[in-house]
Amino acid sequence: MDATHQTNTPVITLSQAALAEVRRLLNVQSITEGGLRVGVKGGGCSGLSYTINFDDKIGQYDTVCEIEGVKIIVDAKSAIYLQGTQLDFHKDLLGGNFKFVNPNADKTCGCGESFSA
User: Fold this and answer.
1) Dist. CA 110–CA 100, nearest whole Å
2) Boundaries of every domain in the chain
C-alpha cells in the first residue's frame, strides 16, 4: 500500500524569489525527476536544523505538493515542524541564501539555519 500523501495544500510555501531560484537550480543541474526535499533534522545551535536538497526518490510517508510546476517533498516527521513555513531566497553581492520563515519556531539561532519548537 502506498502511503505517499499528495496534497494541494502545501506544508511549506515558496516565495517568488525562492521559486525562481529553485527553478534556476533545477535547470542548471538538468534535474527533471523528483523535486525539492525540505526537512528537519536534530542538531544545530538551537536543537533542530533545516535540510534542503534535490531528491528523485519519494518515500512511502512523504507529503508531496506541487507549486507552479515545482514538486516539494517533505517527510512525515519534518511536516510536523514545517507546517505553515515559507521558504524565501535573498540575493546579495556575495551570492544568495535560502531563508526559512517558520511560525512553529520558538527560538531561532543567529545563523537562521536552526531552531527550537
Assistant:
1) 13
2) 5-105
Non-local CB neighbours of 93 within 8 Å, separated by 6+ positions: none
- CA gap 67, 73 in Å, rounded: 11
pLDDT tens column, 79-114? 999 999 999 999 888 888 999 998 887 756 555 555
Contact 73, 58 (CB under 8 A): yes
As a whole number of angstroms, the distance between CA 50 and CA 7 comes to 22
How many Å apart are CA 111 and CA 25, to the nearest integer? 23
Other Cβ atoms less than 10 A from the Cβ of 18: the count is 24
pTM: 0.81
CATH superfamily of 5-105: HesB-like domain (2.60.300.12)
